[in-house]
């Protein structure tokens, strides 16, 4: 069943659509498959380059990372989840935030 919005996929696929077609950040291809530091650096670049985000770059980048982790859910391997959680720490370091 399709949602009522233009160019949106069926409702059950909305999170994948958001991840690949975010209106807040233009993500680099394969960003979430990289090592933690590279994930963080890529998200930082995307957040700082975006003119459509609604909050500060750190929050936008962290929100996108958290969104991806939460929506991937049970489909993430333990190793991938650990790598992406480490990317959160790297992102905090890049923005001089406390863990």
Structural classification: mainly alpha
Low-confidence regions:
none
Distance between the termini: 42 Å
Radius of gyration: 14 Å
- Large-scale geometry: globular
Number of strands: 0
> What is the mean predicted local confidence, pLDDT?
83
Helix content: 40-55%
- What portion of residues belong to β-strands? under 5%
Number of separate helices: 4
Q: Tell me the series of helices and strands, N- to C-terminal.
A: HHHH
Number of structurally distinct domains: 1
Please summarize the sheet with the most strands. Answer: none
How would you describe the overall organization of this protein?
It is a single chain. This protein has four helices and no strands. It is mainly α and 99 residues long. The protein has one domain (14-22, 29-94). Helix 2 crosses helix 4 and helix 3 (57-72) runs antiparallel to helix 4.
């Amino acid at each position: 069943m399709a949602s009522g919005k233009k160019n949106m996929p069926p409702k059950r696929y909305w999170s994948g659509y958001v991840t690949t077609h975010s209106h807040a950040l233009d993500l680099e291809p394969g960003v979430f498959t990289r090592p933690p530091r590279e994930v963080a650096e890529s998200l930082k670049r995307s957040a700082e380059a975006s003119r459509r985000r609604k909050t500060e770059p750190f929050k936008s980048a962290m929100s996108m990372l958290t969104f991806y982790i939460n929506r991937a859910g049970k489909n993430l391997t333990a190793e991938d989840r650990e790598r992406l959680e480490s990317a959160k720490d790297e992102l905090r370091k890049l923005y001089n935030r406390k863990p």
